[in-house]
Queue: 4 jobs
Job 1
Amino acid sequence: MVYPRAFSGKPTRHTLRRMVGAYARGVENQPLPHSLPRTAAFFDLDKTVIAKSSTLTFSKSFYQGGLINRRAVLRTAYTQFIFLAGGADHDQMERMREYLSALCKGWNVQQVREIVAEALHDLIDPIIYDEAASLIEAHHTAGRDVVIVSTSGAEVVEPIGEMLGADRVVATRMVVGEDGCFTGEIEYYAYGPTKAEAVRELAESEGYDLARCYAYSDSITDVPMLEAVGNPHVVNPDRALRREAVAREWPVLVFNRPVRLKQRLPGLSMASRPALVAAAAVGAAAATAGLVWYANRRRASALAAVASA
C-alpha cells in the first residue's frame, strides 16, 4: 500500500481523500452481506469505549521494553490523570501530540507491535466499558458496520479494534523510516475535523447513508464527527461537550462499568461478526447496554432507533 507523505499544517481535501483511503484499515473480522444503503456506527476510543487513554495505558509496558525511561513513565501517568480528570481541550491535545511524537522517535515499530500484542488483554480488556461492548454488539446485530475512529496511534488502535470486533479502524500514523523506526513525524493525524472528513470519505467509498449512521464520543474536539451523522451521541462528556449536547438535544450516555470481555454474560460475549437476528433480539441487546440518559424522554426513542433504523 502506498501511503501519503508526511504533512505539516492543514492538509488539503485532496490530501485527506488519499489519506483516508490509506488509513481506514479493515481489521480481521469478516463482514456480512449488506443491503443498500449501508449504515455504520463510528466510535471514538479513549473514554468512550475504554475507560482510559489507550496509548498512555501502555507506558509501563514500553518502559519494561526499554523504550522509555522512568521520568517518561511518570510524565505519562500525570498526563493520564489530567486526561481522566477533565478531558483534554485542543491546546492540551496539541501538547500531548507533540510530546508523544518526540517520545516515540527512534522506536522500532515491530517492537512496539510486539509489546502491544503481549500486553493487550492484560491492559485493555479490563477497561472496556460493558455498556460500549453491548452497544457495539447491538449495532452489529442490526447490520451496521462498526468503525473505531481514534487519535491514538494505529499500532495501538488496530489490535484493540480487532479485539472489539470492529470492521474498520481510522487512527493516527507516524512516519516510519527505512530502518523500521519512527522518525518522530506524523503522517496522518486523526483528530478534530480530520475525523469528520474520514467519516465522510468512508461513507462515500463504502456506501454509508450518513443520515442513518451513528457516532459516539466524549470530547468537544469530536463535534465535527458527531455533526457528520444523523444520530450523534455523547458518552461521559467533558463539560464543553455536555453543554453542546444540551444545546443541540443530543442524547448523553453514561458508561461506568469496565469489565473483562470474558466476564460478560455468555449471550453478550464479543464475536468477530455477529449474525443477523430478529428485531426483538436487537432490542434486547440494546436494552442491556445500561445506557443512562440525561433526559428520560430520549431513552425509548434512541434505543428504538438502534434496533430499527
Job 2
Amino acid sequence: MPNANHTFGCLSAHRAALMGAAMLMVILFHVGGMRHDTVFYCISRCGNVGVDVFLFLSGIGLWFSWGKVMKAHQGLRHAGKASAFARLLGSPYATFLRRRYARVYPAWLVIACLYYFPSYLDGKAKLSDTVLSVAVNWGFWHHDELTFWFIPAIMMLYTVAPAYMELVRRHAEWRWMPVAAMLLCVLVQYWPPLHSAVGHLEIFFSRIPIFLIGINAGAWVAGGKPISRHGWWLLAALFAMSALACVNFEDGLRGRFPLFIERMAYIPLTVSMSLLLCLLLGRAPRLVSRSLAFVGGISLEMYLIHAEYVLKPLKQLHLGYWPTALVVVGASAILAWVLHKVVNFSFKKSSSTLSSPSPALPRGERAGRGEAGRAGQSPTDEGTGSGGEADKQ
C-alpha cells in the first residue's frame, strides 16, 4: 500500500493545515505594503491564490459530502410514507444544502449584522438593502462590493455543485466541464452582451474552474490515487512555471491585462502547490502542521474578521509590513477562536432544542439534524478531514 503522502489522499490528511496555509496567504495579500519593486511584494500579491486553494479543497470536500448524503438517502428511500413537503425537505439536495449552509451562515450572520446594520441605523442604507446584504450579500451580485465576497460566492457554488457532481457520477465526460468554465471566463470578458450583464463578477466566474477541478479531484482523493516520482517532478515544474508567471504579472504588469488571465495561471499553481505542501507537511515538525491546522479550523471566522475589524484600524498605526502581518494573524486568530466557540456552542444548543422530541414534528423529519452542530469550521466542507472552508477571500 503506497504511503499516504505520495497519493492524492495527502490532500485529505493535510486538509486543515492546507486551509491554515491558505488563510495566511490571504492575510499577507491583504496586508499589502509599499514594496512595489521587490520580489517579496510580488510574492505577497500572489497570496490571493489562497482563495483558489480554499475553493480547490472545498470542491474535494463536497465530493465526499455529496456521496455521504446520497448513501444515506438510499438507505432511507423505502423507510415509510411521507408528505410531498416532507420528501422535499428530506431530499438529498435539500439535506446537502442544509448542512452546507449550516457551516457558514451562523458565523456569517453575526459578522454581517455587525457590519451592515450600523449603516442602516445611521440612515445611510435602506432596510431592504441591509436585509439583502445580511442574507445573501446582495451588494456583491449587484455592483461588485468585494467586502466578504467569498461568502456569497461559495454559497452559490454550494447551490449548483450537486448538479455537477451527479453529472460527473453518471457521465464521466462531464469531468471536462472546467475547460468550458475557462472558456466562459473569456466570454465574460470579451463578449459584449455577457460582459455588460455580469462582467463585474469576474472574480467569481474566474474561480469556477478550480472549484470544479477540486470536485473532480475528490474521486482521486477518495481512491487514494498514487502519485509517481515523475508526477512529483511534473508538479514541481508546474509550480515553478505558474509561480514565475504570477510574479511576473505582479511585477509592474497589473492593470495592463484582464485579471482573469492571472487567475487562469492560479489554477496550476493551486493544484501543484497544494500537493507539494502536503509533501513538505509530511516531513515538517508536528508543531508546524498543528499550528496551521488550528488556523485552518477557524479560517472562516478569520476571513470574516481580519480585514475589516483588525487590519483596517491597524493600518492607521503604520507599523510596517511584517509587524502588521504578525499582529493581524495573532489578533484575528484570537477573535476568530472566540467567535468560533460562541457560534458553535449557540448553534449546537439551538440544534439540540429543535431536535428534541415533540408531537409537532413527525418522525423522520428530525433525522440528520445532529450533524448541523459541526457547523462553522470554515468556508469549506466535511468529508476529507478536520478543518474546512474556505472557502475564504
Job 3
Amino acid sequence: MQIRPSQTNAIANDATAQTRPRERASSTNAFRQALAGVKTDMQMVTVKPGDTLMSLTRRHLGDAAHQFSNSQVLQLAQTVARENGIEDPNRIMPGQAINMAPMTTTAALQLRQSEVARAQLNLNGPNINTPTLDRTLQRAVAKGYMASTELAAVRDKIISLGKRHHFAPDDFARMSLMESDGLNPRATNGSCHGIIQFCSGGNRGAASAGYGQNPKEITNLSVLQQLDLVDRYFSDTRLKDFGPASLDDLYLTVLTPAARNETRVDAPLNINGKQAAYLYEGRDPSGVITRNSIVEGLKSNARDRLGNFTSTVAKMELSRM
C-alpha cells in the first residue's frame, strides 16, 4: 500500500499539546513506580529444593507480582531461562545459580504499559479519552469505509472489546491503520481480508472467525459486523492473557500470534512474508522486525495517515471561508 509522507499541521499539534504534559507526568510516575516495585538488588539467586522458574520470578517481582497475569509471569520466566542458557525452563536444579537481571527491565516496562492502558481506559470513570481512535473513525467515514450513522456504535464496540480483551482502544486504531488503512472492511491483499486482515488457510484468522471456506466473504460485512469476528478471533488467540496488552502484543496477535513468545524488545521476530517498511528496524525491508520496531512503526504510520487526513480537512475548511 502506498503511504504518503507525514505532513505537519497546526490543528493536530494544537489538539494534542494540551494533554501531553499530563501524559508525560503520568507516564513518568508510572514508570518510576514500576521500577520501585521490581527488586533490582540481589540479582543472582541460588535454586533451593522446590523452586521453579515461575516461583523465582514471582518472588523477584516482590510487591509488584499481583499486577502481572500468569501469562506475563511465564513470559518473564522464559526470558530468564533464555538469557541464562537454560534449555528446559521446567527443569532447574537445587544449587544452580540463576541471574534474574534479564527480567527486571522487561517487568518494569510491562508495568508501565499496564498503567498507560488503565489510564486511557479509565474503567471507573464516566468518559474514555480516545483521540487516535476518534480521528481514525472520522477518517474512515470521510473515506467511505462506513456511514457516519455507524460511527458511535463502532466506537462503543471497540471500547467494549478493549475492556473485554484488555487492550487500549487507541492501539486498536493504530493497528487497523496499518492493516486496513484504518477500518476499511473491504481491504484485501488477495489472501487476507477486512479490517484486521483475516487471512485464509488452516488455523489462520479467517478460519478462526468462521470463514475458513470462504474468507473473501468477510469483505461483504460492515465494520460493525467484522468487529464481532475480531471478538471471536481475540478470544481464540487468548489476547486477554497478555492484558493489559501492549501495542506490540496486540499487533502480533493479529499478524503472527506465535511471535508473542519472543518477549525481548530488540530481538528479531520470526514473521513470514514481506511486511510494510514501517515495521522494520530503520524501515529497511531487508532487515529485521522487532517489538521495538513494531511499536515505532505503528505509531509513525498512524501519525502520517492521520496527519495527512487532518491536513486535508483543514485545507477543505479554509477553502470554504
Job 4
Amino acid sequence: MLAEKFLWENCDKNSARISPETIATAIRFAIQFLNTFPRFSDNQSVKKFSKIIFAFSLLAICGALPCFSYMVKYKEDFYRLYHIHYQQFPDDCMENIYWLEQAVRADFVNPLYAMAKIENEEQWEKYRNLFQMHLNLKLIEQHQRLARVYDKRAICFYDAPWRDEYLANLDKAKSCYEAGLYYWREARLWAEKANETKFRWLHLTDLQYWEDERERIASAELDYEKILRRELARVDAEIAKLKAMEKKY
C-alpha cells in the first residue's frame, strides 16, 4: 500500500488539500505496481481482477481524504459560476440563468474582495450599480440563447403535420423574449444610476467592459427593447401562420 501511505503522509491536513506533485507521485506508484504485477501470477483472470481492485482502492483512498471547499454566498461567487460553452444546450442556458438570478438576489462581498479596486464610497456605489446592470444584461443574453433553441424562424407549408409541436416551441421562445424585456428594464435602471452626475468623471478601469456597456445604453447604441420587440413581433406572426394551417399536408 505504498500509494496510500504516500498520499496520507503528504496530504496537507490543515488546508485539506493534496498537492499536484503528491498526486503525480502516487500515480507513478500505481503504474509501477500494475506493470510489475504480472510477475506474481500467470492466471490472466487473477491479473485482471487484481488490477481492477487496485484501481478502485486508489480511487477510494483519494475520495476518503478531506477536500477543500468554500461557501457560495455573495454575488461575486455566483457570478463566477456563470460560464459560456462553445456549444450551448438548453440545460447549459438554464444553469447559467439560475446562477445569474442567484447573483442578482445575493449580497455584495466586502469591498476588499470586489472584482475591481475600490478605494472610496463613490467607487463602491458605482461598482454595485454596474454589477447589477451587467448581471441583467447577461440574463437577457442567456434568455436569447435559450429562445433560439425553440424558435422556428421560418414557417413553410410542409410544417403543417407538426403544427402543435411548433406552436408549443414558439410559446417557449416567446416567454424567453418577454423575460428579456423585464431584465432590460432592470438593466436600464441600473445603468441610469451608474450615469448619475456625481459619477461623470469616475471610471472603474478594472471593469472597462461594464463601463462600455453603460455608455452604450446611455447613447442608445445598445437597445435590447428594440431587438426583443422585433423578435416578439416575428414570433407572433409565425404563430398566426401556423394556426391558420390545416394539420395535414
